[in-house]
Amino acid sequence: MRVLLIEDDDRIARDIATSLRASGYAVEREKDGEEAWFRGDTEPFDAAVLDLGLPSMDGLAVLKRWREAGRRFPVLILTARGSWAERVEGIDAGADDYLPKPFRIEELVARLRALIRRSTGLASAVLRNGPVSLDTRRMEVNVRGAHISLSPQEYRLLSYLMHHAGRVISQLELTEHLYTQDFERESNAVEVLIGRLRRKLGVDLIETRRGFGYMVAEPEK
């Protein structure tokens, strides 16, 4: 899952980015409103953490322009502004959740995790598909009750596929959502990652659709 973090305070941004990466997210950071608007409008992200007090363009204006352009990824607003009227304005502009400063990083991560889960139509923090379960809170994967140790990239890949079960995901989409822009990777990185993940899981969970991509079937009701 790829998250756009927009925060002009370097210390706060560093703490948030560190925690999000430790929780399995690929994080891209911007500190300028104009740049944030452009990236959110032109690049694929699974969610955004958006501070309101930004240089060049206010966070609320960034959010409004995203929504007017049809960008639907969930947005968690951060702000030092405490009035209920401003919170209402943010929600009306298209925010999915609101977190006033100061806040606990653990709460931010939990709220963002819930937003991403709900945006893909999932209710539980534990994703289950056949013998495989993925706990998004603990970043743990089990197959038939046995713990499976995955690398951060393998975990992100499995998490993305299970969040979008029932849909064929192209290699390009996986690349866009698994890696940050500055991450150096080979042209066959996704294929290699898929192969490693399949071997570790040891079950037929990930299907290949030749010429289209990969998918995890929708779990049985």
Q: What distinguishing features does this structure have?
A:
single chain, 221 residues, Rossmann fold, Arc Repressor Mutant, subunit A, 2 domains, five-stranded parallel sheet, four-stranded antiparallel sheet, 8 helices, 11 strands, 41% helix, 21% strand, CheY-like_superfamily, DNA-binding response regulator, OmpR family, contains REC and winged-helix (WHTH) domain, transcription cis-regulatory region binding, phosphoprotein, two-component regulatory system
Mean pLDDT: 91
Order of helix and strand elements from N to C terminus: EHEHEHEHEHEEEEHHHEE
Helix content: 40-55%
Oligomer description: single chain
Give the DSSP E fraction (strand runs of 2 or more residues).
15-25%
The helix tally amounts to 8
Question: How would you name the CATH homologous superfamily of the largest domain?
Answer: Response regulator
In the sheet with the most strands, the strands line up as: 2-1-3-4-5
